[in-house]
User: Fold these one by one.
Assistant:
Number 1:
Amino acid sequence: MASISLRNIGKSFGQTNVINRLGLDIADGEFLTLVGPSGCGKSTLLRIIAGLETPTEGDVLIDGKASIKLRPSERNLAMVFQSYALYPHLSVYDNIAVPMRMRQFTRWQRIPFVRRLVKGTRSVSQDIDEKVKAVSEKLGLSPLLNRKPGELSGGQKQRVALGRAIVRDPVAFLFDEPLSNLDAKLRVHMRSEIIDLQRKLASTFVYVTHDQAEAMTMSDRIAVMMQGDLIQVGTPEDIYLNPQDLRVAEFIGSPKINVLSAMTNQFGQVCLNETPVRFRIADESSTEISIAVRPESLFVCNPSPAAIPGQIKHIEYMGDQAYLYVDIEKQSQRIIIKVLPTQLAGYEIGSAIHVGFDAKDALLFDQDGQRIYATPSPRSVVNA
Amino acid sequence: MSIHRSSSNEAIKHLVLIIGALIVILPFYVMLSYSMKSPREIETNTGGFFGAQAPMIDEYCVKLGKTPEECTTIPIIFNYTEAFKKAPLLRYLFNGVFVTLSIFLIQALISLPAAYALSKLRWLGRDTVFALVLFSLLIPVHAIALPLYIMLAKVGLVNTYAALIVPWTISVFGIFLMRQFFRTVPDDLIDAARLDGMTEYSIVWRVMLPTAIPALLAFAIFSVVAHWNDYFWPRVVITGNRDLFTPPLGLREFKGDADGSAWGPMMATATIIVTPLIVAFLLAQKKFVEGITLTGMK
């Protein structure tokens, strides 16, 4: 069990910066998810923690100890890979036993047949055998111990990979998109298995994924990365409700957050399609800003001067909920409204409707995508 | 119509293949047939494939002063016993096995780590080294035979096993073949092994080698066949000491003596020499084809 601290980590391949000097503290026993679109540097960061990649600058502290010079095996971390990375020629038992053998056997004991001639092999072997059996019991792998990885399903392979990781009691676990190769149903199931495992082991988990749903459901804290920058770190709730950057707001949440382009006038009033919306910002100059509203915060309302007129272009019925896709005049992005299926009556494709939202649900971002805060007027429903 | 055309196409294809096969098989047919016939049948070209197997008198035996009754044998037995009697064929076969296996083992020992370094490690100059490997593939053995011979002679290794083995221990073909195969091994597997505590050498022997068995087997066949059948190099570096003769050199024992060429025993020897290769190929045929297709070599 250990905390992990990243200090000023930077990585570039030739001229290309993959990670721009970032710092991050991961607490002991924490489940931290690194999330971001593909190519944002999250996997590289994980590989730097693991020691598989050397950063161009900065240091990794594991339990307060500078570890950048340590080889991967000396850091005592375990990693689970997207492709499972099981040894194809070894049985499930041997796959789980390998990390133990590499650590506990001496050089001569590692050589098959020779090991029988070396003193003390038997007690170490028994020790390893007990550990492997206990771990496979825990993961429900006992009936599969003699199989080769080629004879296992994706979920079983993933469990073997987990077993290989936990068998040697590492100080922290690293996961590199471990569920991406599984089908949707199994993925949801394995999610809860990994969360259970983390609770049982009370160990530090660093989990890389591009799937925001995984990040939201599994983590204690989420670290969002974009283009090599660490943009925001916080609890799932914090990241969802309080994104500090437009890119974070757009990345987290499904369906995507609605972004409306708006202007502020010289009084600090925010105007949507030239209509002042009843909140203002501190900066009293006229600039372009973005208003971002989650689909569940939008609603269909009665026509009024402040309501936003639009036209339904598409209706998505999901059973327990429904989404209206609405085109709005002078807005390039189509917006999505989440409604209850019972509210669908009377709407069809082509219907003209009015859309409103509560000012407290609106997130404002400046031109650079940085979060800005509004000072809502007393009666702050847009369509009021 | 289209079925008809494609079937006649197939027929033409098979015809061409059959003709090709015949051309390749014919020398083996002659070899096998001669190895069973009496000298008279070989000279007069009679006796069909198996020969009449009529009792014959070994004239050399008679010359040694024995009675004709004592020297009467059946051609097939005469040819094959003569193959072992006239030259120390067992010794030659042992030399062949020893030399080819030594060459292959050392080649594997060198090409596996080299291929690993060229395919999976990042280091300065890797591409240049790989280009050199490719370049070396283009150099024919015969072009460097003379300098090699001189170097071996200078260190006093001519007429030793070392002369037969050492020049072949670094196989650029092996390095190239294994490198191509290693590139298909996922990087994650190697990273997992590193986290499991393996050193780079352990990775080569414990992870890469077991996954590369089909490719290594394909290379083994190439290497063993080439060096088992090699006549040129042993002829160059083994000058006189018959104890070091490899099987192809052994064939010379039957050629052009004062009492004429002993075709029957010679062909019997040839048959004995090629048999191990054919058996080995048949046993490993499936893996061999697998290895060749995996590595994309044709």
Note: The mean pLDDT of chain A is 88.
Number 2:
Amino acid sequence: MTIPLSYYLVLSGIVFLTGVVGVLLRRNIIIILLSVELMLNATNINFVAFSQYFHDVAGQVFVFFALTVAAAEVAVGLAIIIALYRAKSTINIDEFQMLKW
Amino acid sequence: MEQVFFFYFAFVIAAASVLVVAVRNPIYSAVALLIMFFHVAGLYVTLHAEFLAAVQIIVYAGAILVLYLFVVMLLNLRQDDRYHRQWPMAAAVGLTLVIEAVILTAMKGWTTPVIAAGTETTVGGTGNTEAIGDVLYSTYLFPFEVASLILLVAMIGAIILAKKDLGEPTEL
């Protein structure tokens, strides 16, 4: 294996950081969910890189489970977005302040 | 050769993920995410995880992203989505993480490297899909069943959430 593990970790760190900044920066709920997908993919890259590095297939199994959770998160999240849009006909997060104190 | 592939995939993944966050139009954002998913799948192939590459394309690009595009087109959004007011906080969190990453990368040589120990089924011995199947249906059988339960709950929850109105809209 010619590429060192740290390269994969740096790449995954960049993608995860982009996701965090996206969650904090954007006001569109759909883009926020897309940023969460970015973060999940960053962890998946980490898992697969470590799985290759340690010659252990368990990391890939965990990526499989992370994919399952991502699919469930997308289904429920998009259903919530549709319900929110029905209630207020916008998906700008500045408009949803009912839980703020 | 391997390095050329890695740097190509890494560059496109990083650039596409920045585009996902930076682009104003949600549809362009979703398309950038699609490009990123395909290149992550390519990266998995170079890491000898062929089964996960296929699953990545089928599940992420095929199912999840189509769902996103459906909702984006269903809601018919305006494009004037400016960045959030809390961008100083986002910059602070981002800078902290960047500094931490730089420090961790700089002191990489200080610790002794962990020796790779091939414990369980080795990757790419008999075939990636066979290896994953062996482990998934023996060692991780219970988490596998729990994952199916999670999918069932998510399906029912999504149907109920999207079907019913959230009470009556009190303040519009």
Note: Chain B has one domain: 2-81+123-163.
Number 3:
Amino acid sequence: MQTKVVAAAVEPPSETETSVAVRGVKRGFRGARREPLLALAGVDLHVGANEVLGVVGPSGCGKSTLLELVAGLQEPDGGSVEVAGRSTAKARRELCAFMPQRDLLLPWRDALGNAALALECQGVPREEARSRAAPLLERFGLRGFEGARPAQLSGGMRQRVAFMRTLLPGRPVLLLDEPFASLDSITRASMQAWLADALAGEPRTVLLVTHDVEEALFLSDRVAVLSARPGRVMQELEVPLPRPRDRRAAVTDPELARLRERALEVLGS
Amino acid sequence: MRRWLPASALLLAFVGAWAWLASLPSVDDLTLASPAEVWGAFGDDRDLLLDNARVTLVEVLLGLVVSIVAGVTFAVAMHLSRTLRDATYPLLVASQAVPIVVLAPIFVLAFDYGIGPKLAIVALICFFPITVNVLDGLRSVEQDHLKLMRSFGASRLRTLRSVEVPAALPSFFSGLRVAATVSVIGAVFGEWAGADEGLGRLVLLGNNQLQTPRVYAGVVLLTLMAVALFTLVTLLERLTCPWNRSERTA
């Protein structure tokens, strides 16, 4: 799937420094029996402009919490989160495009309407939002499905519509929460290749949360390995291969194999 | 077509049993008119029945419109304001415990003999299922969807319009279906409390004048009215919420 996402319909990301800095972030919750639970215990992360940082960790280690903190949907209990040097939740919300784990498409909107939703939320009139989303639909291999409702689309198609919705407002930072977790392995592989190409065509600052070490290594410049709850960065691994990578080469690359071993070792400890 | 078969068969069996029961010598003609006699009443009193049915139908439809406007407005307001919801929910439930039969004559005193008290009673009965269902529908939206809208920078009004209101549409129609069926009873109560025309009044008069076939004809018409309204609401739902059906069958 050789797809380029460079489209006039998408606003170019601003030229300002769009790095993400997470410093000593702590976040706690109340558990089912009202007992305090610590989700994140002092997380430090830095994602440079147009860099892809993969975040892997066991389930329940606070990965999704971390993304929502960066996205400005939550505030940390301690430490600070900055996107492009700005730390208010509102500023973070304006700079980040957040893609949750589930596609969350609205069942009453067709594919085009769902893709245009984020634009409409920013005040773009309905018809204009739809016409700006239309050329992207074709690039995402969804031509002819403009009028299809989510129930009529396959899992991979739904995920692509959700992805379009995330990209269209042209925000410089992408926060992806297990974007391919719900897909079968064949679709997942093709979507990963597609995302790698898309990011090569149009670089963005990306925070990619996943529990799949291979996915993180295949797509990212660096991979941060989180501990079980309370989440903490245990190790950061540099992936020394240029992006986008060829899947077959990636599978056999000895350097990647070594990194995979290392990550699994840290996760298993 | 096959879906209609069981219902038609049952209806036929019901009419048959009715005819048999009415033919029994021990059953008084004044208590139970036979289907043939009722059919005869439709022929003899055709204009009388239709004129009065029209009056009742107008009361029912206007009452439904009033209750839809009031119920939806109230549900949205309760959804947007937690304080309002907490304050008014007990009152809302209490409004349904009020015995309408007792209230109806008071409404007639207050609003005079015209269509006013009938509308008030129909609306009072129909308001509750609509409000409760719409409110439930608005609140049924998943937290994740609201979070997503917030991350898009959507305003409260935008989230209401694009997510919560469409999500509440099927619930609204569920409430409206209930309202449509009970609205006819409301109109009859209203007419019993005091009216110059309408099917409810016709049935009441027919009862006093021992015109049993006419009474049954009126009851059949009232029932048909409720069934027709129910069907109309179901059709409207299919037209406005096609995704709801395709999701269920998918």
Note: The first helix of chain B runs from residue 4 to 23.
Number 4:
Amino acid sequence: MTHSNIARIVVLVLLIAAPLVQPNAYWVHVFSLALIGVILAFSQQLLVGMAGIVSLGQGAFYGIGAYTAASLSIAYKLPFLLAILIGGLLAGASSLLLVPIVRLKGSSLAVATLGFAIIVHLVMMNEDWLTGGSIGLMDIPHPTLFGLPVGGETAFYYVCLAVAALVFLTFDRIAHSRFGRALTAMSQDEEAARASGVAISLYKSKCFLIAAIASGIAGGLYAYHSQYLNPNDFSFQKSIDILMMVIIGGIGSLPGAALGAAIVVLVPEVLRSSGEFRLILFGVMVIVLAGTGNRGLAGVITDLVKYAIARWWHKPAPTTAAARVS
Amino acid sequence: MTPLLDVSGLTRHFGGLVAVNDVALEIAPGSVHGLIGPNGAGKTTMLNMVSGHLSSSSGWIRFERELITKTPVDVRARLGIRRTFQNLKLFREMTVLENIMVGMHGQTQCEIWHALLRTPRQKAEEAAIAEQARKALDFVGLLHLAEMPAGSLPYGSQRLVEIARAIVASPKLLLLDEPAAGLNGAESKKMVGLIRAIRDSGVTILLVEHHMDVVMPACDTITVLNYGKRLANGTPAQIREHPEVIKAYLGGGVKRRPKADQPKAAEAAHAAS
Amino acid sequence: MTIDQFVQTMLGGLAIGCIYSLIALGISMIIRATDILHFAQGEMLMVGSMVGLSAYWMRDLPFPIVLLFGIIGGGLISTVVELVVYRTLRMQRVALINIMIATIGVSIVLQNVARLVWGSEPLGYPSLFDSKGIVVAGFAVSPQLLWIVILSALIMGTLILFFRYTRLGIAMQAAAQDPDVARLMGINVDRTTTYTFAVAGMMAGAAGVLLGSLFFASFNMGFITGIKAFVAATLGGLGSVAGAMIGGLIFGLIETFSGMLISTAYKDAVGMVVLILILLLMPNGLLTRAGREV
């Protein structure tokens, strides 16, 4: 068994144990929210870390997934998993609207996705018949799985954990495939990738599609999690939050993205006791973590672990090739 | 014999400037064709139009009798036209082996869902890609560096990685853009050998190069460009004696190294193998 | 739409456009000098607005002095942030995208500090001069809007003169265009970068007072305005100072007219659609990043 597999199992066991260690319903609720954030961060990591696309529009797909799942559940009493799945697919379908803009580069593409997010947010704000407008959508039913109610925060937490783990496995396999290799190549030199036969615009569009599906699924989970949707949950600020998760955790690493998401969601909660200072502290943390370099917190931790191992065993730290999606 | 690449009337404007003006080019399969000329003669522009990185203003390009003038770069790559770049374009943070594996992209098919399900076909394809990439690396003599990040290699080795990436998928036509730029005398000699070896493996080559000590021994035929126009066409021996060419080069365009003794092709091939 | 309405809307659009121009200018200057997308530029506007208002509260100051306080407030906070945060990050050679995230961090900090200091309720602003309508060339116009346009034009004019005719202004331009050459010519690029942030902050501070006088001041007024100004700067061509001015005006006009003609709710959407179209059709914005003018 490889080191990374051991690490994965350890993390999974810790995550399974989390609601047992901290059974307080409020905290389990927050943990679920963090897992939803983890899925969002994975979707952003696919774009930024693998394909080198900075998207400021993931919040929009998140919202589309959330509203779709909620509406289907309220109006047609669709089962929980099906509603979430359709939410993800519809978010994916809406990402096809970005096809004309994928040929833009760098910050132009980022700004265009931001424009998309702002437009989607305005639709959520103003189309009352569809989204309930600024009042929002209320009375989203409790989720049921195969006819059984997913009772309580802990059960829902495990659903979120299962989905997040599934998304992790999916993206991890993508990273280590011909497709993932082409994305990484594209992010490092577009011309050379094209000359090797990579259809750049098609691959960027596929990347947006997959990321949008994942974000949409996260949105569906969120709808059942909060049972109330407000357009401001999906403003462009959300898109920026999602990008922030990846940068803080470390560009290019899926575990890093998960760590970043946990920080962005949990730290403001942990700091709640410090009252009005909590967001100030959070801002300072963002600045400091952004200063840790491209590999983010994941990079810092990896370095520390390597250093510790080297000290304990009195042998040089193993040097690996580039730190990429692992 | 029908030419592998057949270019006619190819022209490219940049604003008011005509970088390439009504140039014709024919490359016979299995040959090394050189494209030379003083600085600014339009050699790289020409190569970029053949690879598809630049669109042409007028004229047409045929590859295996098919018209490809408007075909996108990645499609040309899948048809079997591969290239290297004058300013190295490696995927710097990927390993050398991964760089070469990307070179197989256009010739492999597995889709995302194959990877998600880890189908036998995907496993087989990945193994084949890696195997092929190792062979290509071995061919250019860099197998021992396979796991290094490409960006960490010395300059000369990076050039070889680019070439390996371009030939890994057994292209029909290889476009080399100044492969000897920045190489020292010994490395240039090896490059000549490598070019001949690639040709002998069945790849047709279009070579853009400044250095006569690479062009003359490496090429079977040569086209000379000057101010975007075709000046001459022929074997290296014919070109060397061509009065127009001599005149154009007396203006001072040929770069010769201090020790510019013409290496014999056979000797160079030996050095590379 | 009557001619009278048209003139009113036009003036309203120009006024808000001038405010966007002032912020977009700073965003463009910073991009050109450092390649940093400065997400906290809107917070400089907010701080300027708040400082101006506080000055007005302490003593019933005339508007030009309030404006001056806003300019100083915006300039000071921008300089402090540059010296404490961005310069440190640049010295550590942190990747650009990380610095971009750090600017979001700065934005979070400034917003919440402002909330602590000035509270979370919107604060009323003294109106700019007399709010009674005046008649110009046969049209009734709001002097409020007219003054905003005039004052913005004055400020931007001063900035252009500063870039054209002062040693520091020319040095800042040179450093932004080619830092290496500028260094060889004895220009202290670190210092000109700091001045760039200072000037950008001053512009935003002025915009804050003008925007406040039009609506109100609040701790969260900056972020959205900053994003819009960023879009305006992209419209004009990121990195082009003249482009930022024109982009701001165009964005203001588009927003106001589409609010009037299409729907108030979707006025921002129209701006975004125009932005995406311009990015697709003119990838470098209306004015390319020539940077030689102004």
Note: Residues 316-326 of chain A have pLDDT under 50 and may be disordered.
